[in-house]
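User: Okay, second chain of the day. Same drill as before: sequence in, C-alpha cells out.
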Amino acid sequence: IAMTLREAGCDAQVLASDIDTDALQTASSGVYEAERIADLPQQKLRAHFLRGTGANEGWVTIRPELRGMVKFTQLNLQSSQWTAMDAFDAVFCRNVAIYFDREAQKKLLERFTHVLRPGALLAVGHAESFPATHTSFRGCGRTAYEFQPPDSHRSMEHLAPARYFDRELRVDSVKILPGQYHAMGGEGSISTLLGS
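Assistant: Same drill. C-alpha cells below.
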C-alpha cells in the first residue's frame, strides 16, 4: 500500500498493526530475503528497495523514504480500548474478522465507525462480508465498503470527509482496488490503518 501511495506522490502515513509483536518486529525491520521480492518489476525494485552487498548479499531492505511512511504498532482489534488514533481515510482489515464470532465482528464494525472519516474505505477479505450487516457501510466492490454515517450516528463535524472516493474508489489520483493496488500520478493525502 505504501509503495502504491509513494508512486502516486501521495503524502501518506500508514499505521500497520498486528497483535503479534514478532510479526511487527519483522515488518518494521524492513529486511527481506531477495527471493521474496524477485517477482516485482525492476522499476519497483529500484524505487523501493536497496540490495545487500558483501555479507548482506541475497537480502534487500526497504528504502528509508518508504519506511518513513509506515508506523508499526501492536493492536488487538478485540481489546476493550484502543490507543487514541486520528481518523482514517482507509482501513484494510483483510482476513482477520473471519476468525471472530458475529458479536465480535459487530463490535469491531462499531469501533471502526469511530475511527473512519465519512466517505472512508473499509477493505476486507474475499471471504468476509460482515460490513454489509451495518447500516453505515455501503458496498462498493466485492471486498470494499464506504463508510456513510447517518446524520444521527454521531457528530462528525470535527472530521473532514474522506475526500477521495467516487464510484471507482479513486483516492484523488490513486486508484485502490482491494487485492490489487494501482496508482496514477497526482497528489493527495491519505491515512490508513492495516489490520492484517
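Residues 152-196 have pLDDT under 50 and may be disordered.

User: Thanks, on to the next one.
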